[in-house]
Amino acid sequence: MLPRLLSLSLLSFALSGCSSLEFPWVYRISVQQGNIIDQEEVDKLELGMTKRQVQFVMGSPLLIDTFNQNRWDYYYSRRDGDGNVKDKRFTLFFEGDKYIRHEGDIAPSPASEEPDSETENKNRQQADDNITKEGDNTAY
């Protein structure tokens, strides 16, 4: 009876390391791979940027195609302890040394509306008036 119990316990310990068996007390870590792709980084990209500028903003690409140097692939994958996988893909295309387009799961946010020239001129005029008023009160 004792050898049978001992062999059964050794077998259970040996199998506890196998991934096919799931024990509730075993902690499984999250695994992250690739480049973390944030919306902030993607929003900083502008058409016409050089490869060095893009690399400064986004970091080094995970994949640079050996046969097509004008394509950079950024990939991020996260597998949580339950086995759920979330991934993001972002591909940049260049023409020569200039960024021309992108593809992927993330798109740049729409640019905020630029103020029209009339509003901008009014704001400048108000700022100039304030400076002039402040200058009148000072003695030279």
UniProtKB/TrEMBL annotation:
It is a lipid-anchor. Residues 101-140 are annotated as: Disordered. GO terms for biological process: Gram-negative-bacterium-type cell outer membrane assembly; protein insertion into membrane. GO terms for molecular function: protein-macromolecule adaptor activity. Residues 34-103 form the Outer membrane protein assembly factor BamE domain. One of its GO terms (cellular component) is Bam protein complex. It is found in: Cell outer membrane. Keywords: Cell outer membrane, Lipoprotein, Membrane, Palmitate, Signal. Residues 119-140 have a biased composition (Basic and acidic residues). PROSITE patterns: PROKAR_LIPOPROTEIN. The keyword Signal applies. It comes from the Bacteria. Part of the outer membrane protein assembly complex, which is involved in assembly and insertion of beta-barrel proteins into the outer membrane. Belongs to the BamE family. Part of the Bam complex. PANTHER family: OUTER MEMBRANE PROTEIN ASSEMBLY FACTOR BAME. This is Outer membrane protein assembly factor BamE. It comes from Marinagarivorans cellulosilyticus.
